[in-house]
Structures are given as structure tokens and as C-alpha cells.
Amino acid sequence: MKNDKSSLIVGGGPLAERLTADLPAITKLVLAEVTKRIPAYRVLPAEELSGDITTVIEQTLRSFITVLRTRTLPTKEELDFLRESAARRAEEGIPIDVVLTAYHIGIQVVWNSLTPHVRPEEVDGVMAVNALVLRYLELVTPAVCAGYLDERQTMFDDEHSARHTLLAALLDGGTAVEAAATRTGLRLPPYYVVLALSVGVHPDETSPGTDPVIAGRRKLRRLRAELERHVRGPVLSSLTPDGGLALLPHSGEPNDHDWARLNRIVADVARAAGTTITAAAEVAVPAGVAAAATSAQEVLEVALRFGKPPKLYVLRDLLLEYQLSRPSNALGHLATLLDPLAGNEELLETLRVFLRHSGRRPTAGSLHVHPNTVDYRLRRITDLTGLDPTRVGDAALLGAALAAHTASAVNRR
pLDDT for 335-375, tens place per residue? Predict the structure, then answer.
């Protein structure tokens, strides 16, 4: 869009000419100010600062001088140059807000260089410069953002495709894992923590008037971001809003500290997603990921079938339940030990809680009843089954029978 081509006068002379004459000095001032105020630019190689970054600053200043001289907004070619520059910053991993801040700093340096020379009769011209600055930024800002985001999307698509390819190879369990890693440029870690996840429903997914698909995607995005935040190296995942698999790179065989940290990660991911998460984990070298994924999914299924509370589980946490979920002649015999309690949910629940807490007072507190009531119910269980929950040997057998009873009930569904 073109306006009056009369020169904008500052300090008694055309502003465009003043800035052209001072271009080398202003370029250095902008570079110094950008590196002073933006830490991300300070750590760039000196060669890049004196080369590409300086070239971009100078070209941008020339473009702005042309705007001041002609009162014509930047051409498509000039904007394309800025888009390409922004794409290079995206490749370098410089955040978009930092890139945009650099442009605003450049404008501030130019503005500060001209204002000391303004004469009273030139105020109208300065106001015209201000209007052009705003219109210039109005065009430059979206152009820079578009160039940056286009490159980031390309990088994301490439990385996503690479991760998907490697994940597929790992889960296939063939001999192509190393080849897939080489082809995608992703380095295989010594071990993977294979997580099988079951993700609960977020309240927004069932809220009237809210699109459940969008709510589910938002939940999934938060979940993925939190996983990435906790883990060094690329997380390979195949996740939906309901759950799925995630492979976390790990440097060695996990110790107790590592398992505690993994428990905290799962808890943090659940909080970030705003819902409950039940997870199962196995650890394997890359060649063993396929088998570990199958095992983790089986452990997760057992945890869900037996109604375990949402948290992280490994096989050793569910050995009895896991074994009872496998076909066995002993399963039915164990379950029949509790047949005398059939239909009496009060006694069954008291037994479950007592075996979990191993004490009459904690059991009474959990059930919100008097300890004497717990004693009465335990005696009834002993009378009906012939097994005493307060005896160590009988308690172990009753625990197995209870697990078998639950497994039998689940299998009948």
C-alpha cells in the first residue's frame, strides 16, 4: 500500500538517508543489544553471529529503510527472506518468542538512534514513522512466525515419522531394529522401560457441551508433554486418550531408586493429564522390547481385572493375581474355599480389608466400624470357612482364595 512519497525528515535531513549512512554502526548496535538482552543468542557460534545473524540484521534494516523512504510496505521477496531466516532459527532450536524479541529490539535501537535528533517542527514526521513501524511489524511478525512454524512442523513430522518407524521395528521384535535406528538417525539406548498405560477419563470428556474428542486430545497432549519432560532422549509411544505403550530410554538396569523415580513420573503424568493412570512396566534391551511389551500389557490387564488402585505396577507386585489369571486346575479349588461366604459382601469386604491392613483397628478405621464389629465378622468367617484370618498360615491361604475368587468372577464376565 502506498502513501505520500515525501521524505520523512529527522534532524533536518531525510531519515532514510541518515539511516543508510549509519547502517554499519546501527547493525553493530542491534547485534550488541540482541546478544546482551537475549541469552539464547549469546551462546551462538561467533561465526554465525558475525555471518548469518549480522546479514539478517542488515537486510532487515535495509528493508525497513526502504519502507521509510518509499512509505511502501515490504515486498513478498523481502518477507520471504525473513521467513527463511526464521526457519534457520527454528532448526537451531531458538524459541519463537526469542526470535520475535530480536526484531523488536532492532526497531528499538533504530528508534533510540533517531529520537535525540528530532526537532520540534519534525514531530508530525516522527508520528508518521511510528505508524510505519507498527504497520511494518504487523507484516513482519506473522511472516517470521509462519517461517518458523513451518520449519518446526517439518521437523516434528520428520521426527515423529522416525520415532514411529523405530517403535514399529522394536515392537516387531525382528532383526531390523539396528537398521531402523541407523535409517532414522535415532540412537538406541542400552535399555528401554516399556510402559503399558491405561488412562482414565478426564472430567471434561463427559462434561455436557464439551467436545469429548477435543478434551481427549488435550489430555493426551499434556500426558505426552509430561513424559517428555521427565525423560532424557526421545520417548517412543503409541498412545490414545485411553492409553497405550510408551518406551522410555534408560541407561542401565533399574535399581530401587529408579523404580521410585518411575513411580513419581507416573504420578506426575497422571496429575498433568488430570485423570487417573494405571501402568505396568518391564525393562528390556532393545532386542527384548517386543516380549517386554507383551508382558507389561499382561500385567496391566491383571491390575485392571483385579480392580487394583491406579498407580505403577511391575510383575512382582501382582505375582499371585497374575498366576491366578492363568488357566489352572488349582484356581477353582482355591475359589471354592470362600463359597460359604457367597452373597455376604460384608464379610468378603471385611476379609479383603483385614488382609490388606493386617490389624483389627486399621480395618475398623477403613470400614468405619467399631473394632468389636471387626472381631465379630472375623469369627463369622472362621466359623463359615474353617480358616482363621488372624493366623499366618490361614491368612495366606485366604488371601490366595480371595484372589482366586476375584479371578473366577472376572473370568465369568
Answer: 788 889 888 899 999 998 888 877 888 899 889 999 899 99
Q: What is the pLDDT of residues 19-63, one digit of tens each?
A: 899 999 999 999 999 999 988 888 888 888 888 889 989 988 988
Q: Does the model's pTM come out above 0.85? A: no
The domain that holds 136 is classified in CATH as: 1.10.490
Question: Is 243 within a domain?
Answer: yes
On whether residue 171 sits in a domain, the answer given is: no
- Please report whether residue 161 resides in a domain: no
Number of domains in the chain: 3
What HEC string does the chain produce?
CCCCCCCCEECCEEHHHHHHHCHHHHHHHHHHHHHHHCHHHHCCCHHHHHHHHHHHHHHHHHHHHHHHHHCCCCCHHHHHHHHHHHHHHHHHCCCHHHHHHHHHHHHHHHHHHHHHHCCHHHHHHHHHHHHHHHHHHHHHHHHHHHHHHHHHHHHHHHHHHHHHHHHHHHHHCCCCHHHHHHHHCCCCCCEEEEEEEEECCCHHHHCCCCCHHHHHHHHHHHHHHHHHHHCCCCCEEEEECCEEEEEEEECCCCCHHHHHHHHHHHHHHHHHHCCCEEEEEEEECHHHHHHHHHHHHHHHHHHHHCCCCCCEECHHHHHHHHHHCCCCHHHHHHHHCCHHHCCCHHHHHHHHHHHHHCCHHHHHHHHCCCHHHHHHHHHHHHHHHCCCCCCHHHHHHHHHHHHHHHHHHHHCC
